[in-house]
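Structure in, sequence out. Go:
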């Protein structure tokens, strides 16, 4: 009975949060197939560690699991790929036309700009401004203080604006 309850709960969460989690992880790594793997691992880990779930804030809990799995994936990447990410090229030739077709022009500009800023800035911008989490929820997901979230958001938006200006794009809302 307990096992059936956990399966149903995680299944409900999958239907409710999988799209948001997919978009978050994809923004972080930019690889459709790896994003699907991380998403599957997120719900598998949620199922296997359900006992550690505190009963509230399942969305934050799932995002924290997905973030940790994404960070683990990035750390395990080959050194060459890691260096390529640290020093992105002007052109985003590593993206397939199929992947880029998923975004409209404004989203492409934003995506390219996000890929060119520090990971910590990217994390907080995606969570706060794209996924719409509160400062409190973002601090829980990232394991940061609320003040650190605010500071990194400010600096991240400034860095993103600089990247967009460098690329010839600027939008007042950024």
């Amino acid at each position: 009975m307990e096992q059936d309850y956990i399966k149903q709960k995680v299944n409900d969460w999958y239907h409710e949060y999988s799209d948001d989690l997919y978009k978050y992880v994809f923004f972080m790594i930019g690889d459709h197939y790896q994003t699907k793997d991380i998403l599957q691992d997120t719900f598998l880990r949620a199922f296997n560690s359900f006992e550690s779930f505190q009963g509230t804030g399942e969305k934050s809990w799932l995002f924290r699991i997905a973030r940790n799995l994404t960070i683990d994936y990035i750390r395990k990447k080959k050194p060459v790929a890691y260096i390529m990410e640290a020093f992105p090229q002007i052109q985003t030739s590593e993206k397939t036309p199929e992947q880029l077709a998923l975004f409209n022009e404004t989203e492409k500009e934003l995506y390219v700009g996000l890929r060119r800023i520090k990971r910590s800035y990217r994390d907080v911008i995606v969570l706060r401004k794209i996924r719409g989490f509160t400062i409190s929820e973002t601090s829980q997901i990232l394991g940061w203080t609320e003040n650190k979230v605010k500071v990194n958001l400010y600096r991240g938006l400034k860095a993103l604006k600089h990247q967009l200006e460098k690329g010839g794009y600027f939008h007042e809302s950024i």
